[in-house]
Amino acid sequence: MSLQRTFVIGDIQGCYQGLQRLLNKVEFDPKNDKLYAVGDLVARGEDSLGTLRYLKSLGDSFSSVLGNHDLHLLATMNGIRKAKKADNLQPLLEAPDKRELADWLRQFPLALRVSPEHTIVHAGLYPAWSTQQLLSLSEEVSYYLKQPNYTQLLEVMYGNSPKSWKKSLSGVARLRFIINACTRMRFVDKNAQLEFDTKTHPSQAPKGLLPWFELPNKQLAPSEKVLFGHWAALNGDTHSAHFIGLDTGYVWGQALTMLYIEEHRLIQVTA
């Protein structure tokens, strides 16, 4: 039997054909290989429904963290928010198995350790947190997402405050900050306050804003790597051995990227 291979894929965004092309390129074998995703499984691509059905069919060979689009889908499925016009979600919202897909999706965490050295999270690692703290805070949110009344969390997760982390945060403020840091973060100021308006490449950002990964994080071990998506305009441009950006904008006509963990090699297909 050949050794198990581990792949981590960037934002799929419902691009079913691109997903299949990339998996075919590496001859992905669900019986032997493992596929992880950095979130945003759905949204602007041509077939979010087909994407979710396929990934669910992989069973234990697939796992993911949740992105902002995945959480928004759950809120939309439950009538809390309306689908955005740009999101191609109607077939999914009308699917006979949508409840089953929603229940499958909400079992995924916000952060996941995929090897002793590799942790995945959709938007990134908040600079004041260790990866162990990130995993622990992810579990706090997952606890509520896995409850029968999980929609109560979805109803209060929207909003930009609080902007800063304090260990003393509690209740809705605490959960919202964790969700925002894990699924929406791009830029912070020098005091590690989250800023949500700017989505450009760091070279075009307003003065005073830094990509979250440029604020020093003293809690990272030298060998640790954080794999993230969410930021298409970044195009993987972190200039850091610690932080690997896997959203390379396939849905915007660029590339779909996957990291082959065992060989530490990036594999791509272009749109």
UniProtKB/TrEMBL annotation:
All copies of domain Calcineurin-like phosphoesterase, residue ranges: 5-149
Designated name of the protein: bis(5'-nucleosyl)-tetraphosphatase (symmetrical)
Keyword field: Hydrolase
GO MF entries: bis(5'-nucleosyl)-tetraphosphatase (symmetrical) activity
InterPro entries associated with the record: ApaH, Calcineurin-like_PHP, Metallo-depent_PP-like
NCBIfam families named among the record's database cross-references: apaH, PRK00166.1
UniProt cross-references to Gene3D superfamilies, sorted A to Z: 3.60.21.10
Protein family membership: Belongs to the Ap4A hydrolase family.
Pfam family, one: Metallophos
Protein EC: 3.6.1.41
Reaction equations catalysed: P(1),P(4)-bis(5'-adenosyl) tetraphosphate + H2O = 2 ADP + 2 H(+)
Entry function: Hydrolyzes diadenosine 5',5'''-P1,P4-tetraphosphate to yield ADP.
Domain of life: Bacteria
